[in-house]
Amino acid sequence: MRNFLSIILLIFFIPVEIKAWGFFAHRKINRQAVYSLPPEMIGFFKHHIEYITENAVNPDRRRYAVLGEAEKHYIDVDSYGDSALYYLPRYWHQALEFYTEEELRKKGIGPWNVYLTQLALTEAFKRKDINAILRLSADLGHYIGDMNVPLHTTKNYNGQLTNQYGIHGFWESRIPELLAEEYDFFVGKADYLERPQYTIWDAVTWAHMALDSVLHFERIVSSRFSEDKKYSFEERGGINTQVYSKEFTKAYHDMLDGQVERQMKRAIKMVADFWYTAWINAGQPDLNALVNIQTELPEEKFEYSKPLDVREHDDMAKKESPSTLRRAFLSSIWRPGL
Ligand SMILES: [Zn+2]
């Protein structure tokens, strides 16, 4: 019976969908970025806006199927010691002069990967390769989104080192899902980036500087809520799941004073800037001519016999105490008379 129960518990606490910036936020960021593009680009991107939106989350799904993908989504700046933000090389080839590739990958290669993806997008524009343009634009939007999330810049990525387990998904999924309706996503027109490598490192710097508030304010708000007010249960995919309560989420959000909205807006603007810059660098190919070309956009398959053992950014399961698990389990299956 005991074994049976633990198997059931495991089943119930495998995350329904693995998220980063929350699937909701990634989709929103890619979608909104389209509206900042210049007239020469917007027709093509609007024509494919559903693809750009839906495929914004592919890189996260790929993490479990493709070796080398997971480390593209983060950089543990603080694992390099003090002042790392100032001395870490902005260019990948320079970074390889100071560190082994293995070490760099272990600590995350997020910002360098953004630039490499942008170069690939530039090449796709030059070739007028519709499939590659769309796939790489969607990917690039995702990676830039991640670099604007404070918890993607630290080894304490899920509050696991400060007893705040679950904060990753809280900040980047729960908050936008509950409150982004109120946000103003107008970011203006895309700008050309002279040095995209520096722009993406600015994003990392900015995001990392916001980390202190992310963690500190959660601790303050937690001290004002009892455990049963901090969490509540909501149905997710037919499963009664423990989530941060709406009251707690609002209180934390108020204290952050617009931080999540600011970061989302920075991400949207940056995604548009990177797409635009890639297009300019490719010699401004005529995208309107591509709109009417019938194309079959292949769906990416994520096949694996066993998911890769990679970092779980927002896994909630491990933080649960046995009593909370039991409570969640009972409330998820209990029916009167059973
Ligand atoms: Zn990601």
CATH architecture: Orthogonal Bundle
Task: Examine the coordinates and then state which fold CATH places here, giving the name of the CATH topology.
Answer: P1 Nuclease
Q: What is the CATH superfamily label?
A: P1 Nuclease
Number of helices: 17
Give a quick account of the main beta sheet: strands, pairing sense, barrel closure: 2 strands, antiparallel
Rg value: 21 Å
Global shape:
globular
How many structural domains can be distinguished in the coordinates? 1
Q: Report the structural category.
A: mainly alpha
Cofactors, ions and other ligands in the entry = zinc ion
The first-level CATH class name: Mainly Alpha
User: What order do the strands of the largest sheet run in, or round the barrel if closed?
Assistant: 1-2
Low-confidence runs (pLDDT<50, min 5 residues)?
A: 1-19, 317-338
- Distance separating the two termini: 16 Å
Number of strands: 2
Order of helices and strands: HHHHHHHHHHHHHEEHHHH
The fraction of residues assigned to DSSP E strands is: under 5%
Fraction of helical residues: 55-70%
